[in-house]
UniProtKB/TrEMBL annotation:
Catalytic EC class: ligase
Any coiled-coil regions, as ranges: none
UniProt-listed Enzyme Commission number(s): 6.1.1.2
InterPro entries on file: aa-tRNA-synth_Ic (IPR002305), Rossmann-like_a/b/a_fold (IPR014729), Trp-tRNA-ligase (IPR002306), Trp-tRNA_synthetase (IPR050203)
Pfam family, one: tRNA-synt_1b
Entry protein name: Tryptophan--tRNA ligase
Gene Ontology annotations for the cellular component aspect, listed alphabetically: cytosol
Family: Belongs to the class-I aminoacyl-tRNA synthetase family.
Length: 326
């Protein structure tokens, strides 16, 4: 069977280094081998941002520029808009018939995110977003989903939904498997760099912004003086060395633990590593940003292609469920 890749991002803010490590770099590599679909999850963004449609609208194009800047190639990857594929909404409704509320309530990622939101109660759409994510994956019969580890419970649910659907009706859907990227810590030391936690370095950051965020980032609190021995395993800066300078981090660990490498020198090293990563992205970004018509055409043709596939899958699903009346 040929593999097909699908992933996407909530259109809630610009993409950051965590997305790059967790998912984007895998997508860039996978697109060379497999047909790849990249979803701009604007409906899923509404589950927490339904009162901010303008923010979603603005970020749709920003994230598209993020994709193009990291090297997602429109000729290899289909970039498309979730809300413009009504079949995803249809599949969500059909799947929701055989997913229980308790399964969704006990989903660990839903629990963490709902706790972070500070609300006592969950919106119906938010509680159900893992079901809608199963529809995102199955409409194009994706087999590989490159994601961060917070998405694993959702992938497990998607696999269960596929199995259940196939045994209840007809085996028309395909079980997806995840490819899991590393999780990147936030500049504040939170275990996840996240759009909604304000602890991220976005991919479109200027050199000054990167330097400023790294300067302000938390380090080992026990290291008061430059030559105090450090504890790299609790330091976000060390985590960034591991993620972005994999060849050199043993020396950085040693320097930190022995107190021979001070925090500001260590921060200067990672700042320059990040510059090397981000500079080519900035160039690609500005060349696409100067041609908004081309960016729109990429979205229009990607969405058209996704829609064609969605129609085909939906016809099979309707037939499997005896919903093909005429
Ligand atoms: P939000 O806070 O709005 O949910 P987010 O930063 O979690 O935003 P998503 O759009 O929900 O971003 O996630 C898109 C993809 O990026 C998912 O596969 C997720 O696992 C991955 N991802 C997000 N943050 C990180 C991170 N810090 N490290 C690794 N992967 C991440
Ligand atoms: Mg998220």
């Amino acid at each position: 069977m040929t593999e097909r890749v699908l992933t996407g991002d909530r259109v809630t803010g610009k993409l950051h280094l965590g997305h790059f490590i967790g998912s984007l770099q895998n997508r860039v590599a996978l697109q060379e081998k497999y047909e790849t679909f990249v979803l701009l999850a604007d409906v899923q963004a509404l589950t927490t941002h339904f009162d901010k449609p303008d923010l979603i609208r603005t970020h749709l194009r920003e994230i598209t520029l993020d994709y193009l800047s990291v090297g997602i190639k429109p000729e290899r990857s289909t970039i498309f808009i979730q809300s413009m594929i009504p079949e995803i909404a249809e599949l969500t409704v059909l799947f929701s018939m055989f997913v229980t509320v308790n399964v969704l309530r006990h989903n660990p990622t839903v629990k963490t995110e709902s706790k972070n939101s500070g609300l006592d109660d969950m919106y119906y759409g938010f509680l159900g977003y893992p079901v809608s994510q199963a529809a995102d994956i199955t409409f194009c019969k994706a087999t590989i989903v490159p994601v961060g580890d917070d998405q694993l419970p959702h992938l497990e649910l998607a696999r269960k939904i596929v199995r259940r659907f196939n045994e209840l009706y007809k085996p028309v859907l395909v079980e997806p498997k995840p490819i899991v990227g590393e999780r990147l810590i936030g500049t504040d030391g939170n275990s996840k760099m996240s759009k909604s936690l304000g602890n991220s370095i976005t991919l479109d950051s200027t050199s000054e912004e990167v330097a400023y965020k790294i300067k302000r980032a938390k380090t080992d609190p026990a290291r008061v003086h430059k030559n105090d021995p450090g504890h790299p395993d609790i330091c976000p800066i060390y985590a960034y060395h591991q993620a972005f300078r994999p060849d050199e981090y043993p020396e950085i660990r040693e320097g930190c633990e022995k107190g021979t490498l001070g925090c500001s020198a260590c921060k200067a090293l990672i700042t320059s590593t990040l510059e090397q990563l981000l500079e080519p992205m900035r160039e690609r970004r500005s060349s696409y940003a100067a041609k908004p018509k081309i960016v729109d055409d990429i979205l229009i043709s990607g969405t058209q292609r996704a829609r064609e596939i969605a129609r085909e899958t939906m016809a099979e699903v309707r037939e499997a469920m005896s919903l093909n009346y005429f």
